[in-house]
Amino acid sequence: MSEATRVKNTGLRGVTVADSAISFIDGEKGVLIYRGYRIEDLADHSSFMETAFLLLFGTLPTGEQLEGFTGQVKGMRQVPPYVLESMRHWPKDARPMDVLQASVPLLAMAEQHSDTMDRDVCLQRSIGLLAQMPTLVAAWHRIRTGQPVLEPDPDLDHAANFLWMLQGKKPDAATAHDLDVCLILHADHTFNASTFAAREVVSTRASLYAGVAAGLGALSGSLHGGANAKVMEMLLKLENEPDVEGWVKKQLSEGDRIMGMGHAIYKTGDPRAVYLKKMGQRLGEKTGGKWASISQRIEQTALAIFAERGKTTILPNVDFNSAPVYYLMGIPTDLMTPVFAVSRVAGWCAHIIEEQFADAQGKPALYRPQAQYVGEYCGLMGCEYSPVNKRE
């Protein structure tokens, strides 16, 4: 096939694959909306529990509904004992995202599966995953570090309970609130790679658990959710670097990337990054951490270089600013992406349910994109097969 007739490989960017009523992005204006509500309003006034309800059920809850939903989540935080027992036999140096992805099918084994699709059953399983994801992340960290796994505390809200199970001490109200806002900011982001993976898998009528496991696999990559850990590794590398600006200039002059800079969609700024940047500066002042200062120096130098090159749309993204925030909260670097998943599971489940019940009959449209074949071609009859003893 000639180069003129080949279709450019764009990774499906700009290609509409389905309708969705869950979230919306205007990359030119820097707008992110969940179910009609701007992320700024949710971050300022909502809670992660309320936002998760909005994503799953399509509307903001009444006070009674929110109380009932929060109670359900708190009541489902425990994971089956066999899951924790299984974890104790896993290599202690296993990557946390691999552990998390392996744990979700174990949760599925405790459920009675059926080929009959039922929205209410999917919603209940979604609430269960929302409740258990923090428990899985915290339990693995405790197990791998030789500490006892802690019971969930029903008196603590979602974010505070996670920090308690992870660190063994109850966080102050300000830190718990900051993490709750982080969870809101990460809860959904339209058809990103992990959400697309989750929807594609369940379009085959696979289970909700299979879809979430697929989402976790996609999120683990360094070009997606794994980018926040890479940003923190960069910051730690520069902890004692006297010439941060010189390091940035050298990186860019040699054609290397600055992790956390640039986004596939946002061209005028990521609205989530604005909140996280302020949060990082505040936490840095509170704890004496230098990460916000280092981040600022990297950002200013990189943006000046990009401007000189006419690349004014390369800006800090959510990973660039979330990494120091999580670090200052005492969250280990390799748990930053799992914390991302603790939030994003709300969006994945909302998308999975939307995909599974795309019409009144609950018939998902099986995803089946085409590929441009660029391999050997010997005509419609195919290449001539020669026996192995006659091949040179």
UniProtKB/TrEMBL annotation:
Classification via PANTHER family: CITRATE SYNTHASE, CITRATE SYNTHASE, PEROXISOMAL
The uppermost taxa in this organism's lineage are: Bacteria, Pseudomonadati, Thermodesulfobacteriota, Desulfobulbia, Desulfobulbales
**What keyword terms does UniProt attach to this protein?**
Acyltransferase, Transferase
Which transformation does this protein catalyse, written as a reaction? Answer: oxaloacetate + acetyl-CoA + H2O = citrate + CoA + H(+)
Q: Which InterPro entries match?
A: Citrate_synth-like_lrg_a-sub (IPR016142), Citrate_synth-like_sm_a-sub (IPR016143), Citrate_synthase (IPR002020), Citrate_synthase_bac-typ (IPR024176), Citrate_synthase_sf (IPR036969)
Q: Which family does it belong to?
A: Belongs to the citrate synthase family.
Catalytic center residues: 263, 319
- Under what name is this protein listed? Citrate synthase
Species: Desulfobulbus propionicus (strain ATCC 33891 / DSM 2032 / VKM B-1956 / 1pr3)
Provide one Gene Ontology biological process annotation: carbohydrate metabolic process
The family database entries (Pfam families) matched by this protein are listed as: Citrate_synt
A single Gene Ontology MF term assigned here is: citrate synthase activity
Which pathway, per its entry?
Carbohydrate metabolism; tricarboxylic acid cycle; isocitrate from oxaloacetate: step 1/2
